[in-house]
Amino acid sequence: MNKLSIESIKQDKVTIDTQDIADGVKIIVSGDIDMQDPSTLLDPLFDKVHNGVLSSGLKTVELDVTNLTFLNSSGIKAIAKWIMKLAGTEASKKYQIKILQNKAIAWQATSLQTLTFLVPGSVNVV
Amino acid sequence: MSCENNNDRIKEILASCQKICARILAQYDEDAEREVIIAQLQGELNQLGTLSNQILENAQQIYGISENLAGSAENGFNLSQQVQSRVTSLADVIKTSVDDTNRLQMQSEKINEILSIMSEISSTTNVLSINASIVAARYGAKGKEFDVVAREIRKLSEGTDRSLKDITALVNEIKNSISSVSEKLRKVNQEILNQNESILSVAGALQGVTLAVEVIRSVTTLSKQNAESEIQTFKTIEEALSKLASCNTTTIPKTEIEELHHAIDVVIEE
Question: If both were cysteines, with which of A5, B104, B154, B177 could B129 make a disulfide (CB 3.0 to 4.6 Å apart)?
Fold first, then answer.
């Protein structure tokens, strides 16, 4: 089990694993997110991550989407919602979000950079 | 109590009255100052409210534009998916056609083989008819009729040989045409596969645009909500200020107090 005690999720065509990294956690999302309302799956997960990271004082969250082949608009809305929570967090408690992308997947190349503008300096896409 | 003492006492009372009058007059000044400040605050609040309304309006405009963009990108994505599906069907048809031409190629090879066997049969028949003529010649007049048959067979075999050569030439021509069509179909198939990849990239890029617009919509929605909440807060403050402005702490007209203050002044001096 990882630092935040988040269990692996497998639903429809998507798998989500959470692993420990040096100063935080890494969330690995693989498969397709094309379900009608992914917020029921993603909102509780990101809430858990956000609250867990704040209470444990972790500094980094990596979101690995290199094997996420499809993401629908409700899915990115859930990610944006999580990032906007970070925007409302006081400066001393802010953590870094690093999004690991796969440039070979066209939708990632054109959309993920937009997320960096939500909290400048705290969100990176690599 | 002596008259002098009474005068002193009256003076003291009058001095106290004068002080009270002065304090009440100071309150009037404070009220006036407060009214000015409230008016200023109300003006500034009005400006802030106008700004918030503008922000709300802009957020609504951005939301509308992004909704339009998202719709267009989504339409583009759906269209490219349809095109991709049609191109895939076309690639399947082309692949079947390539398989058909390959089969035709093999069948024409077989026809060539059959023609080659027929050519050998015709050649053997020709040799046999020549041998038959030689044998007929050996029997002189008796073999004359047999020689006529042998010559007819030779003519037939020569005719067959010519026809076989014509057929072979035609089959070779067909084979070359099939080969050329097959090669062109293979190129078309490759091009379709390449186009399919491009269409997939376009579809992916459009999906990306849809997602990027969704992020803009999320931020705009938040801005809209913030602006609405600000407008509500300004309204509440404005109402509170209006109540504050209408609160009258002093009910006696200022001029009356001023007159009283002046009258006491005169009496004390006298």
Answer: B154
